[in-house]
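I have a small job for you when you get a moment. Would you make up a two-line entry for one protein for me to read? No commentary is needed, just the two lines. Write everything out right here, beneath this request.
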Amino acid sequence: MVYRLKIIILFISLLLSAHIQAQEHYVFSSISSINGLSDNRVRTLCQLPDRRMIVVTEGLVNIYDGAAFRYMHYDEQRAYSLPKYSGYHRAYVDNENRLWLKNRFKLMLFDIRTELFNPGIDSVFVLLGIKEPVVNLFADTENNFWYVTAKNALYFRNSTDRKATLFLRNVAEVSNTPDELYDIAVHEQLMFLFYKSGLMVCFDFNAKKELYREKSFEGKNNTYNGTLMVVPFRQYLYQARNGGNRGILTRFNIINRQLEKVMETDYWLNTLTVDHTGNCWISSHTGLWVIDPTLKNKLLISPLQLVDGKAYESEISTQYNDNTGGLWVGTVNRGLLYYHPDRFKFRNLGLPFFKPTSNKHINVSSFAESQGAVLVGTSNGLYRYNSRTVTIEADKTIPAASACEML
């Protein structure tokens, strides 16, 4: 069958789906203040159980349903003091339809149902059974909440419970010297505490008993004591640490208790996420890094390609992998970007790609895959499509004037 086309549609995705993700062509849709986003300075992202996206910008919390935005204002002057959190924007959603937002020694609370800022955090903690000031809080990937109090007690609230219970006393003294708890991760029946010093302590979750401890920076000073973000995935604990003007990404194997250094940079790593296939995503001021599960293939996505053909470079402040496989990217001053691997299964390759000399039309009759490329048979000879460069070049295997009707 012969197709006479001015626009040739090649079904590239199925032919090349087995190739490494470094060959993926990332094209983003832009969502900015033009589309209703309150501010183009995106600070953090998360998702509600009903799949709506939370987009935190300067001064406002945006709720996006894919078509329109709703807004929740907040007043940092009425925020709850969080003296043990020196990091930047982190957002958590609990089982009571509440959004918790912490940033630089402050904690803010929102009621998702009423879409209102709640300045009465003290009373909420009392209802949870915590009667002393909270100095930091965390949420793990199982949506359990953890609270550190002024007396160094660590309280735990299961995702299905409405009350918090004491898990550990003197959490700051676990390392035998005063240390600051930076993050918490849970993997099956194991609970991990991560400290400013680089110490990691593993507990039996049910018995509340310490099993072992590891030092992330054994034998040298910990220069990465500025911020920490931990993301568990399968048997691994990914850790992005920053300090001074440097960043480091490591991966701890829970099974063999080996720590691998994935990469080290001379700039901070803003946020860390892992998608459902195991690809690790890191935002930074140089762009967006993606690293495959083998750690062998690292790709820096910069500049960012948009669906309208434009491209720009921007610092990436944050990213979020939603529960449908989509990737949301927050930029410092360009708003929000969205990518999904299934959105662009087809790529349009028009007549100019074939660089015609005299013919007004190209008759395309056949396709075949060959050595990672796609051969295209036409009435004007054989062409080869390169997915890396997105170009079509004449293949001189047969004369240019030949009609190639079958491959």
Q: What stands out?
A: DSSP finds two helices and 38 strands in the chain.
